[in-house]
Every structure is written in C-alpha cells, then in structure tokens.
Model the fold of this input.
Amino acid sequence: MKGSAFPTIRRLGVGLAAAGLLFTAACSGSGGEGEAAGGGEEQAAAVDLVITPADGGADISPDSPVTVSATGGTIDEVTVTQTGGEEQQAEEAVAQESPEAGEDVEEEFGTVTGTLNEDKTEWTSDWTLTPGSKVTVVATGTNEAGESTEVTSEFSTLAAVPGQRLEIQSNFPVSGDTVGIGMPIIINFDLPVENKAAVEAAMEVVSEEPTQGAWNWFGDQMAVFRTEEYWEPNQKVTVNMHLAGVQASEGVYGVKNHQLNFEVGRSQTTEIDNDTHRMVVTRDGEQIQDFPISNGDGSTRAFTTTSGVHLTMEKYQHLIMDSATVGIPKGSPGYYYLDVNYAVRVSNSGEFTHAAPWNGDLGVANRSHGCTNMSTADAQWFYENSYMGDPVTITGTDRELEVDNGWGFWQRSWDEWLANSTVGEADKTDEAGSPGSPLAGAEAAEESPEEEAAAN
Done:
C-alpha cells in the first residue's frame, strides 16, 4: 500500500460521491437518433464516476476504504476533506492551552492521500478516517473526448465510544531527541491492541538514509520498530502514525494522528569484556576510550552481568540503588543500598554503568552486584558522552540478556525479528507508505481470483 511521502503528517480528510450521483453532459434527440440538435455529430457520454461510501451515508466505519471508480474515462483528481472529527477537536483544545504543539505531535494534517491504478480508473484511500467527522470527497474525471465531470459525496463517520478510544500513552524517543544508532522506536498504547497488523500498517517510518525495519509487539500494548542494521548516523527520521480511525480491537478506534521527528547522531558503540575487565568505546569507526571496569561477581544469577547487545536507556547524575527494586529485599542475603553517581541504565534488571570509587579491583576482577563499576572520572565521561540508544555489547558471562529485558531488541536476529512482525514484510524507509493496510478488508481485497478460488 502506497501513500505520498510525508514531510508532515496530514489531517485525514475524506469525501465520497454516491454511487449513482452522476453529472452527465445534456443531450438532445431532436436532430435525429444519435445526433446533436444543432449539428450532425454524436456527443460523447460523460465519464461515469462512482464514489464509495455513498453520498448521505452516516456512521460509516472509520476504517472503511474510500474508493472512486471511473467508467468511460479516467480519474483526474480526488480531494478528501473532513471536519469536526475528534482529532480536530483534540488539536484545537491543545492549541488553546498552548500555541506550541505537544512534544510528539506535529502541525496539522492535510488531505487524505490515495493510490490510483495504472489505467487511472480506480482510486483507493491509503489511510483510515477520523472518527466522528464529516467527510467530503470531490472527484473529477475526463471522458474520451476530453470533457470533464465533477462528482461530490458527503457522509459522516462513526464516533469513537468513550473508553474505546486508542491513544498513545508514551513513546521513545520523543520529537526533538538526538539518539544513538541502535535506537528503536517504542510506542506504548493505553489500550490492548488485537488488530496488530492494522496498527502496524498505519505507522510509516521515513528516514533520510535508506534502510528497512519492522514492528514487533511485546504484549498487547507496546509496539517496537527496529531496523535490520543500526541506523546510518547523522540523519533525520520521521514516524507518521496514521492512527485516527484504525480499528485496534473490536469497536476500539484510534482518535488522533501523530508525527514523531528525531535525529540519529554520531555513531558510538561500546564493548565490555567480562574476562579482560575492559570497556572500549568506538566513535565513528575510531577507538576513543579504553576504561578499566569491574562487572558482577557471578556469585548468583542476580549478581551476574548479562551478555548481549544492550542499549543505553536513561542516565542519572545521582541515583540511589536499592536491591529491593530487583527482588532482593532488605534483610535478605545480598541486600544492598548504594548511593552512586553518573549512572547509565542498560537493562531493566538493575544493570548500570556507574562510578564506584570504593571498588579497588577495576581492571583486575569482577566484584559488583551486576553493574559495570568504573572510576568516577571514567563514569562521568561515559555519562556525558552517551545518547539514548547507543549500543553496549557485553561478552564473557553465562547469563544472556533477554530480548524484553530493557531494550534488548537486538538480541533477536533480523530473520527472527521479521518473522515476529504481524505484517510479515519489511518496511523500506526510503519509500512512501508501509507494508499492509490499516483499512478494513484490505487483505481480502488484494487477493487474486486464483487465491480466492483456492481458498474456497
């Protein structure tokens, strides 16, 4: 399914011409059958334009496709606008509170895009419609004689029911962030998503440098986009989330479109060797740091540093580390309560790089509770020079990082990642559109007669 590339997300606008609502050139038979009144030549029939949904329709499902078909000519242009929808109302409310848009919501939408077939006789909308909106579709076409016809259709879409309105609860990164080359796109929804393929297809990722990626789901409320290889550094990435009107679960519709804009910064990767007790940092292909470190002592699973590809997630200049937060309560063997500086998180199982001036075995032995201990100066450098999403690869331990432990998404091979996408096809980020379609019945509509016959 293709749509135009978005510099900004567009407000979904749609209109339809009713089937049968046709404007044709007037003909007169007074000059004889097949002849015009004032001359001897037969007038060509006007192009027959049919818009679906039909004019006057009410409570149309927002994920219904808008189509225009032409008989006896071709389609020239289709314009879809919508007003009064829940998305517009939400944006107006935000605008009244603050002239500046929210961190991850960019500017207003334009008209709905659509795809025209090669012979210009069928036009189909790319995206869903905003719930509770009034939609106007204006289609123009030309017959074989070059005469133009315009058809208009108006209808309204079904409003989303309170308690069944899918919205974004949080996302990483947010607009304006500069991130590392391993950064995934993480979208957390406020309600469970059953129609994951439709929601995946509604989220279009566009990058300046060509690559491909796919979405995976972790539970029913978190979707994660990861590229096949790390992002090329120093480029802009846009995520167009055409969620308004997508039916996420039965009767649950997205109510608002979003656009996310962030930048991928310099290339920085870190390798931590549990056996040599060294941490090597490489930037843009050149080694720039080699730090002595001390990892987990390995006396228990909890005190064993995880091996695998981690990502830097967040950082704290000052942090209290309480083992009760990772399942070792006060009074238990191994309980600890530490006051640390320059902490950079790399997992959800309590692993950070941080300053540990009390550890006299840096570069010599592993003595920590699972974190990567560093000198204060080295930990400060890493804290100050880390972006969210920088890859940190740890080797040499017998505890493997789980794919859902923090942002361990690079623990899956690309083949595994692609196989876990519900769309099942890679999204090429230098091409408009996304794999699949958020429209209802899109998969069935794309079946060939042979496939349909085989299915029956």
Summary: DSSP finds six helices and 28 strands in the chain.
